[in-house]
Amino acid sequence: MKHSTTPQTRRGRGPARRVGRTLAFVLPVVLVFSGTLAVAGVNWSGRPSSPVLAAADTAASGASSSGASSRTAERAPHQVLRDRLLVELHKENPGVALTHLQQAVNDRPSLARHCASIARALGKAAVRVYGPTRAQSYARPVCDTSFASGVLTAHG
Q: Which of 112, 93, 96, 90 lies closest to 52, judged by CA?
């Protein structure tokens, strides 16, 4: 019987195999844990946790006998939210309104499709109140760059 003079290597017993086995065990655990945290972080109650959303829901669902209140009740939640944020922009500053817009979209994902138009409206209003330079200083990536787009549209 003839033996080989080259040493045989043990396939798959090096550090790469140990790393692979560790990842094969740890990765599913991490994925399950992060998925559990993601599901636990969602507001499943249907009630908004943001005061801006609560006001929008109250205005949208609460019908009263007065003409102004009944017109508000007929409006969509995103329209009520936009109006609330515009008032907030005048009382506080665009940064506060943008923060509340981001919170509203995070708390109620159905508002995401209206986020860009609301942010543009906030940008246009900011130019009217603060001027283009100061309004642009409040720009941040809420709903992409729609706020900055509103500032540019109002200025240009």
A: 96
